[in-house]
Design brief:
Layout: E1 17-26, E2 36-37, E3 46-49, E4 62-69, H1 73-76, E5 82-83, H2 98-110, H3 124-135
Antiparallel strand pairs: 1-2, 1-4, 1-5, 3-4
């Protein structure tokens, strides 16, 4: 999902920036090869929500992730990892070009996420809450964070 919209999260002054991604889940679930988002192997600080089935396997084939890094190129350079818009949490989706906004909504819908009611006046926080709650009812962007590089 190419969604670079507005660069409000861009690296200014050498400070790490937070970006949200949807990453495929990899691993076999063993101690040597745990389930994890593919972006975990990119060498950047990350956090992810990976809801599990009762048997411990991932509920979904993908994870909502947050990366906090100076350089996101290793993550954005992987075509299997979808970058979500680079906008602030409280930005309305109207700051995105219509084609980018539609691409984001369509990609999320294709993943099975109900995007009913999400439109140009919705905030990015509302979109992230919808994604996170798809697999974990208690998900909150306020408790989803990672320290930077």
């Amino acid at each position: 999902m190419v969604a670079d919209g507005v660069g409000v999260g861009s690296d200014e002054g050498g400070k790490a920036m937070r970006r949200y991604y949807i990453s495929p889940i990899i691993g076999t679930g063993t101690e040597e090869d745990p389930f994890r988002p593919k972006l975990a192997d990119k060498g950047k600080p990350w956090v992810a929500i990976i809801p599990s089935k009762p048997d411990g396997t991932p509920l979904l084939p993908w994870a909502l992730c947050l990366v906090n890094a100076l350089d996101h190129t290793p993550v954005t350079g992987d075509a299997t990892i979808d970058a979500l818009p680079d906008i602030t949490l409280d930005s309305q989706l109207s700051v995105l070009a219509t084609n980018v906004r539609n691409l984001v909504i369509n990609k999320l819908t294709q993943r099975g996420i109900d995007m009913t009611g999400i439109n140009a006046t919705s905030t990015f926080r509302q979109v992230l809450e919808r994604i996170g709650r798809f697999g974990e009812a208690a998900f909150s962007t306020d408790r989803f964070d990672v320290s930077g590089e």
